[in-house]
Amino acid sequence: MKKRVILDVDTGIDDAVAIAMAVYSSKLKVELITTIAGNLSVNEVTKNTLNLLDYIGKPNIPVAIGANKPLEREKDNSIQAHGKKGLGRFKFPKHNLRPLKTDAVEKMHEIIGKSKEQIVIIALGPLTNVAQLLRTYPEDMEKIEYILVSGGLLHDSKKNPYIGFNVMQDPEAAKYVLKSGERIIICPSNHGHEAFLNYDDIEKTRTTNRTGEMLEYIFRSYKDRHVKDGAATHDPCAVTFVSNPEIFDTQDMYVHIRFIESKQTGVIDFDATKTPNMQVATGIHVKKFKKIFFDTLKKMP
Length: 301
Hints:
Blueprint: E1 3-9, H1 13-23, E2 28-35, H2 42-55, E3 63-65, H3 104-114, E4 119-123, H4 128-136, E5 144-150, H5 165-169, H6 171-178, E6 184-187, H7 190-194, E7 197-198, H8 199-208, H9 210-219, E8 230-231, H10 234-243, E9 248-260, E10 265-271, E11 278-284, H11 286-297
Parallel strand pairs: 1-2, 1-4, 2-3, 4-5, 5-6, 6-11
Antiparallel strand pairs: 7-8, 9-10, 9-11
Helix pairs in contact: 1-10, 3-4, 4-6, 8-9
């Protein structure tokens, strides 16, 4: 039986790869994609999401628009790691896809409430939508199998921590979700840095099919200071954890949001010495991940 999932995204480049992998996975059934302001405004993120779904031949997956700003602060627009439009300069063809009229939180609640099986929420962007869902409809928590959070960095410097984008954009929402009592699994950015697509992988992507050509083009605009010779795969790793958890190592840890006053933001802290409160993906089998990536890519147009 396929695992039923909701994708919560701020569609930039690695989100696009993750969405494509999720909707073509033989092990996942994507019930809904919700958009959140992150890499861009929520309207631009929604436009990118619809463009992508049309291009890869999955126009029937519903898309609902979420929050356009963090819970308690203004949106930070200082980081542009995915180009000005989020998907580089690739020009998608015109289409007639439109988002749902129901907003993200209400549609998540509707789908969770009607589902006979538990649902996994895969959070690939800031956690604003997820926090609002848990605040507004705490009764949904028992029907959520777990929330997979893409973010954080293991073995990070405490004095000069890696300011992960998803938490940095809305640390208050991240704190709320992590302290909610819901089952949380963290897929840190380490895996996207380790299982990155090198230039040979990207060339293989380009020559696989039409979708691969598009992905190679948008990879040209992707910037990650940890990956100098290829494209990071943070969000694709997060989706793969849900579809293929057997290729990951995990450890139970104490995880919390630590606020950094000097930088007016927060980061995810991991501590294996304290009483654990959630599961963390600590290792990935890179060759198996890449096989899953290319096997899934071959299913696309």
